[in-house]
Amino acid sequence: MAAGLNNALVRAVLLIFLLFPFAASGPEGSSSRILPVGNASADRAVSPSQISTPTPGVVGVYGFSAGTNPLTGQPVTDPGLLNRRPVMVKISNYPPSVRPQSGLSFADMVFEYYIGEGMNRFLAVFYGQNAEQAGSLRSGRLVDAQLVDLYQGLLVYGSADPRVDDVIIQALGERAISHLEAGCPVICGAKDTHQSPWVYANTARITQYAAQSGIPPYFPQLDGMIFEDHPPQSDQFAIQVGIEYSAFDRGEWRYDPQTSRYLRWEESNLDKDEMVPLTDYLTGEQLSYANIIILFTTYTEYAETLHDITIWPNPTGKRALFFRDGLMIAGSWRTVEKDRPMQFFDQWGLPMPLKPGKTWLVLVGDHSTLEESSSGIWNLNFDL
Fold it and tell me: How many CA atoms lie within 13 A of 321 on its CB side?
């Protein structure tokens, strides 16, 4: 049995080196073996016998079959949607009057990050599905150019500070689509993204608009993540994870064992002591995601509301925390090319299998701190 285990482990390692030659080292500034966070010690770290080697149930190791979304590991209703660039929409979370937002439940992935003055904002990735109304739109940030390049997408945003807009347009060119240039029915609502009735994008019409604007057809290469129904071994439970940006800005993910998904909660009217479900205006249902990933990275602050966030290059890896199936797994995230998706790894440098479904990713500063207040209850305090 031991020989069989060793052979399986060798095959897994060889597979990783063949498919992911950059996976040999651990996160930046560490060895290749990463211990779990929290109260775990070296004695409680995951052992080789607990490593999940690739099986027929793992999706993405050898690429994805036709009609399977590489961002979710799941089949799509309309495979033709995968023959386009992802539509990546900037969505506001403040002021609270913009809630409930529209379309977030249709996004394959959502990036969340700090924008200054104690507030956060979302960048939603629509690829395998469309949303008739995604928003409300808000202004772009410097990091958007990097994220959109990674996924070879189209950026839909409510213009930007001229200093930021110059960077976005230089990086993305015609792929940066502002509400000031694309009128209704592509982007509809108020002329000012800061005022009600707000501004919303139709993601299917964005794709059509891009084609009509001369942006050539493109079949994005979005392989890089792997998916598996069965969760990895972990002795760290995670039934709730909270992200606190400031005295008034807090979001929480609470695990629902009936659906095996994390449900989103948000502070009510700037009162973080009162948490309420965050729903999608289009469906009336609470936001539900299969994977929550916290990515530690470097924020560079130029002014209170002007930051850059390091996404690429990151070939050696930075710290990541993965939440799926009521568990937390420590690992790392990497970017090895500016136009290829992020890739995720476990404590042993092997590709981290995500749960098939949608993923919510939170970019936090390197100095952010994570604490377990009670068993399975995790709280992260954001810090640059």
Answer: 27
